[in-house]
Design brief:
heterodimer; A: 274 residues; alpha/beta; Rossmann fold; six-stranded mixed β-sheet; four-stranded antiparallel β-sheet; 10 strands; 36% helix; globular; disordered N terminus; B: 289 residues; mainly alpha; MetI-like fold; disordered C terminus
């Protein structure tokens, strides 16, 4: 709790432009397989994310949302356009980025703490200070006492929480999440959503979440980007004007229901075209 | 805030083990005969086979030159074990095996790493490796005796060559088996090629490498003994031939017992090291993850 005001201060000190913390302009992505027709995976993607914003990307499968996230992560090159995070052009993986994956992808030969420390080791950051930070995160996600356990001793939900700690340990400017709760059962998933909101608030993080769950996107986000396939493009950006802090009961309100059905209409339209 | 969240964790993760697997119970069950019937079944089979053998040989009056009774083998084994000459042979074969194995492991690890990391090396060398692998290495033993003489060297080379291939294949296969998602995870956090190798490829390969070592050490013993068959003045393979020439069949069996004990000890040593070094592979199999 004591760290919260400090983080809030940190948030207000503007480094690069806080309104364009993530800046994607005129982004295109083509896949050009050697023997078949090139596919237009992303077409003219334009959006900005404010510092501290929680934004979700939803769309039917094949709409390019994972491609978009991989470009932000620096894993695959863009074809055209500009992509920058915290003022840095993304051409390769940036140390300013943390990422949570579909599966927790913990290393089974490392303890939870050693797993959380992976980015610190890779980026050769100071171990002692980051070890304390890692322990703080482990405590924050409720894994205290499990730091010396191995991944196989933890449930799927707990492993994914360790994955979130790993993504946050090096104080990234942006947290990218690729369907992080898709493999979890419905109950655990709801719980993880609440947890994620708490972490987001506590760390004042900027989060881009790719998900195929519309209610999840509505519940978590400040804005939802709706994409459609062939070629992958943004069809609508919806401001989610629900009060914060939120708990699961907010999903029972009419307003949340309106957002969900409005987004679902896009999905239905897309499947009709198919 | 932290307190409530911890409580919520305990409540929501029903599938989670509340605490690490109950280690105490595990240890209690380790020597529990009801839990593990093999603990008495295995010795029981031994006793049964030996008893049937002993009485069968006596009952059907089998010639000791054909099949000596276990009692004669035990007696012969005792005579060997209390004889300094035997331990000389034992030591020679052990030396040949271990030195040959060490050379085989070193070359296999080095070459396997290079082949798995440099695609052009793999493309160039793999056809030769596959071709050479199909050669029955035992058939090379006479050649090695011609090249390296009747001393230890030819047997060491034999042990090295024959243990080299299973290890090499496992090193290459293991270093190739790194999970793509794990590599991608490290890449996102900015890992270099050597960091990815050290943090994911090598640990992934360890269970494979140990499987190779397990086969390799047993092959090394085989290589040393075969080498001694072809031409030697000492070693357990030489002793085996000597007892054979002298129609000391019980003595032959005694040497065979020693050789199989050597193999078992080597195998158990590798398994022990594997459990210590690549512990997660074992646990994951149990969990089924």
């Amino acid at each position: 709790m004591a760290t919260q005001p400090a983080l809030a201060d940190d948030r207000s000190t503007t480094g690069p432009d806080a309104a364009n913390w993530i800046d994607v302009a005129g982004l295109h992505k083509y896949y050009r397989p050697r023997k078949s027709e090139p596919t237009h995976a992303l077409s003219d993607i334009d959006f900005q994310v404010r510092r501290g914003e929680f934004i979700s990307v939803v769309g039917p499968s094949g709409c390019g949302k994972t491609t978009l996230l991989k470009i932000l992560a620096g894993l695959i090159p863009k074809s055209e356009g500009e992509v920058s995070i915290a003022g840095h052009a993304v051409t390769k993986p940036l140390p300013e980025v943390g990422m949570v994956f579909q599966a927790a992808t913990l290393l089974p030969w490392r303890t939870i703490l050693e797993n959380v420390m992976v980015p610190v080791e890779i980026q050769k950051l100071d171990r002692t200070t980051h070890r304390a930070k890692a322990m703080e995160l482990i405590e924050m996600v409720g894994l205290l006492g499990f730091e010396d356990k191995y991944p196989y001793e933890l449930s799927g939900g707990m492993q994914q929480r360790a994955g979130i700690c790993r993504a946050l340990v090096h104080d990234p400017a942006v947290l990218l999440m690729d369907e992080p709760f898709g493999a979890l059962d419905a109950m655990t998933r709801e719980y993880m959503n609440v947890e994620l909101l708490r972490i987001w608030q506590e760390k004042a993080a900027t989060i881009v979440l790719v998900t195929h769950s519309i209610p999840e996107a509505v519940f978590l986000s400040d804005r939802v980007i709706v994409m459609s396939p062939r070629p992958g493009r943004i069809t609508e950006v919806i401001d989610i004007d629900l009060p914060r802090p939120r708990d699961l009961s907010v999903m029972n309100t009419d307003r949340a229901g309106v957002y969900v059905s409005r987004i679902r209409q896009h999905f239905n339209a897309a499947s009709v075209i198919d | 805030m932290t307190d409530t969240s911890t409580a919520a964790v305990a409540g929501s993760d029903r599938s989670a083990p509340a605490s690490p697997p109950p280690v105490k119970q595990k240890q209690r069950g380790k020597w529990d005969l009801r839990e593990r019937p093999e603990l008495w079944m295995v010795p029981a089979v031994f006793v049964l086979v030996v008893a049937l053998w002993e009485f069968g040989v006596k009952l059907f009056d089998v010639d000791a030159f054909v099949l000596p009774p276990p009692s004669a083998i035990a007696e012969s084994l005792w005579n060997q074990l209390t004889n300094d000459l035997f331990w000389g042979h034992f030591w020679v074969t052990t030396q040949e095996t271990l030195v040959g194995f060490a050379i085989g492991v070193t070359v296999a690890l080095t070459l396997g790493t290079m082949i798995s990391q440099v695609p052009i090396l793999e493309k160039t060398l793999m056809p030769y490796i596959v071709a050479f692998q199909t050669v029955p290495k035992v058939a090379l033993a006479p050649l090695f005796v011609v090249w390296f003489g009747f001393g230890l060297t030819s047997k060491i080379v034999m042990a090295a060559v024959i243990s080299f291939f299973p290890i090499l294949i496992n090193v290459i296969e293991g270093l190739r088996s790194a999970d793509a998602d794990r590599v991608q995870m490290l890449t996102v956090f900015g890992a270099s090629r050597s960091q990815i190798f050290r943090m994911v490829r090598l640990p992934t390969a360890l269970p494979f490498i140990f499987a190779g070592l397990d086969i390799g050490i047993v092959f090394a013993i085989l290589g040393a003994v075969v080498g001694e068959f072809i031409g030697a003045q000492e070693g357990l393979g030489y002793l085996l031939l000597q007892t054979n020439y002298n129609f000391d069949i019980a003595g032959m069996f005694a040497v065979l017992v020693v050789l199989s004990l050597m193999g078992m000890l080597a195998h158990l040593t590798i398994r022990f090291a594997q459990r210590k070094v690549a512990f997660w592979a074992e646990e994951n199999r149990v969990i089924g993850a």
